[in-house]
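HUMAN: Quick job: go over this next protein and say how the chain folds.
***
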Amino acid sequence: MINMKINGLPVSVEEGTTLLEAAKFLGFPIPTLCFMEGLLPYGACRLCVVEIGDGPKAKLVSSCTYLAEQGLNVRTASSRVVKARKMIIELLLATCPQSKVIQDLASAQGVHQQRFRQEHDDCILCGLCVRMCEQQMMAKAIGFQGRGEKRSLGTPFNIKSEVCRLCGGCIYVCPACQLRCTYNQVENAVCNGCANLTPPCLEKEKFDDMMCYMEPCVACEIKNDKK
């Protein structure tokens, strides 16, 4: 067994356990987008980042791919982690603003603005469709092409794949292809139709870590009732 700490709580986990699995087992919520049960973790979206280590050597890592280590100190909701997640969501919103999955993540994480140039709805390169096609449907009909800004998804040589069975699995898991939000004004890119309030423990830098992990936060609900 591996002994470590998550949000100050001493825990023991089996070797090979990811930080995401350990945190979820203990009830600490971590948002995810490119992660899905039954598919190998890919770590593309970086939304599941957590902070490991202490002091100036502390760093952010993707919890879905980082394995538990002996003596590791993990923080799943420090102010640094929350700020990083909000920035990632803003970037995702700039790429695919009408994705209900991303809009719901924005609301849940307290993102109320999107400061980057908004593009037309586009692939966010999460890799869910590629892994679904290969690991669950055993087809490998689609895959990544190119690198950097030219990176995209498609079939080999961009021609109709002979192994594709038109099962629709790729569309089923795609955040850009699922339910759509009709709220698409460029100047107001974030819908917040399902908005949750920012945890008051992190407001105005009162604390460096979230004080509770309840969903919804009781303090947030009380604060909302007073408005």
Observations:
- The first helix runs from residue 19 to 26.
- The CA atoms of residues 89 and 122 lie 15 Å apart.
